[in-house]
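for the writeup, i need someone to sanity check this before i put it in the appendix. the sequnce is what the collaborator sent (i think, or maybe the updated version? ugh). structure was predicted straight from it, no edits. if anything looks off just tell me and ill rerun, i have time this weekend
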Amino acid sequence: MKTYTDAHARKGLDAKLPRIETFPNQFPGYTITIVNPEYTSVCPKTGLPDFGTLTIAYEPRRRCAELKALKTYLLAYRNLGIFYENAVNRILRDFVAATRPVWASVRGEFRSRGGMHATIEARWPRRRK
């Protein structure tokens, strides 16, 4: 049986993806929640498709994510080989870099495969040890 390698673990983390465009926020102190029920990517080892629902929640500071640009960014994952955990954390990293929010979270609820499903959630700012 083949094992997972370090190359599998890193796959997709440095792939070039479309930019998440933003626009100026006009109001302080509110939450935006964006749900994408049609997220897809590919397992970096097996090449099988992964499906899930992504929820991005954040409190904007000066910039808001432009939804069409965010949709284009998320669609770029469709043929990208990347593990669930890496996808959720990369989306959070890229989203925070683009919007510089007060706080943000990305939650991925991935469909069952082989009788198991997974939910991964990442938050920014990151928890301190």
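The radius of gyration is 15 Å. The domain at 30-120 is CATH 3.30.1130.10 (GTP Cyclohydrolase I, domain 2).
thx in advance!!
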